[in-house]
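Exercise 7. Given the encoded structure of a 266-residue chain, write a plausible sequence.
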C-alpha cells in the first residue's frame, strides 16, 4: 500500500526519538515493545510507570546522542534523518526563468507521493568523445562491464540542451533517507514523457541514502532543452516488514550518493 501525504510529511520532519533499553544485570536487552517515543508525543513518556515529573522532563530535554539512566532503564535520544530534505509541503507549479514567471512540471508533496526536482548539475553522454576513445579498437559498442562512458559535465546550469537520441544524467535537489522498512518506486512526470523525454530511476531500496541520480534520454529527432529546478520524478513509498539486510547493511555501491550525477559503477 502506498503511503499518503500525512505519512510523507511526518517522516520528512526532523525529530528526536527516545529509545528505552532495559538493563538485565550488566547486560542491556533490545527495546521493549511500546517503549519507543517521539518528541511531541509527550503522553507516551508521561504514562511510563514509575517516572517522576522531573525524570520525564529530563528525558524530554535530552539532545541527540545523549542518554540518561532511571533505575534499571537507559533512555537514549536519537536524531531521525528526514525522509526528504529540503521538503516542500505544497505543490509548486511555477518558477522564474529569465525574469519571467512561467509554468513548469510541478514538484512537492502530492496525495500519495512526492515530486523531486532536477538539480543544477548535468553529465551529458558525448558520442564523439566515446568514439574517439575507442579509436583503433574493434567495434563501437558500449561495453557495460569494461567501458566508462565519457560525459561532458555542466555544473551550476540553468538548463542543458540534449541533442537527438542523447543520454544525460541529472541529480535531484532533494536528499532522500529511506527507512529500513520502506522502499520507493520512481516514475517520470508525464509532461516529460509527452515531450518525448524519458526519465528513469531504479527503485530506492530500504536503507538507501543520498541524492538521486536521474537518467534522461531524448528520443526525439530534434534537440530538447531541459531546465533545472523543475519537477522531474514522483516517488511513491511502500512500507513492509523490516528487512533483515538493508541497502546500507550490504554496502550498496550507490550508497550516500553526493549532490552530483553518479556515473555507472561495477
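Solution.
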Amino acid at each position: 500500500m502506498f503511503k499518503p501525504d500525512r505519512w510523507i510529511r511526518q517522516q520528512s520532519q526532523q525529530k528526536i526519538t527516545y529509545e528505552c533499553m532495559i538493563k538485565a544485570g550488566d547486560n542491556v536487552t533490545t527495546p521493549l515493545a511500546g517503549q519507543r517515543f517521539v518528541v511531541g508525543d509527550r503522553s507516551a513518556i508521561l504514562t511510563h510507570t514509575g517516572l517522576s515529573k522531573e525524570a520525564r522532563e529530563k528525558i524530554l530535554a535530552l539532545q541527540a546522542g545523549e542518554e540518561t539512566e532511571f533505575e534499571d532503564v537507559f533512555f537514549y535520544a536519537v536524531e531521525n534523518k528526514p525522509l526528504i530534505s529540503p521538503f516542500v509541503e505544497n505543490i509548486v507549479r511555477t518558477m522564474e526563468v529569465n525574469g519571467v514567471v512561467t509554468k513548469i512540471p510541478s514538484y512537492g508533496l502530492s496525495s500519495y507521493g512526492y515530486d523531486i526536482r532536477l538539480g543544477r548539475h548535468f553529465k551529458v553522454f558525448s558520442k564523439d568523445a566515446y568514439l574517439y576513445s575507442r579509436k583503433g579498437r574493434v567495434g563501437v559498442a558500449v561495453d557495460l562491464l569494461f567501458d566508462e562512458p565519457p560525459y561532458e559535465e555542466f555544473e551550476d546550469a540553468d538548463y542543458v540542451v540534449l541533442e537527438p537520441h542523447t543520454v544525460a544524467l541529472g541529480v535531484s535537489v532533494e536528499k532522500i533517507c529511506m527507512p529500513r522498512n520502506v522502499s520507493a518506486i520512481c516514475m517520470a512526470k508525464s509532461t516529460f514523457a509527452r515531450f518525448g523525454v524519458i526519465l528513469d530511476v531504479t527503485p530506492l531500496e530500504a536503507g538507501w541514502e543520498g541524492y538521486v541520480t536521474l537518467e534522461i534520454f531524448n528520443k526525439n529527432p530534434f534537440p530538447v532543452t531541459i531546465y533545472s529546478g523543475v519537477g522531474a520524478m514522483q516517488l511513491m513509498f511502500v512500507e513492509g516488514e523490516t528487512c533483515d539486510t538493508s541497502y546500507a547493511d550490504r554496502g550498496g555501491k550507490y550508497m550516500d550518493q553526493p549532490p552530483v550525477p553518479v556515473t555507472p559503477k561495477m
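Remark. Residues 53-60 form the longest helix (8 residues). Students should compare their own answers with the one above.
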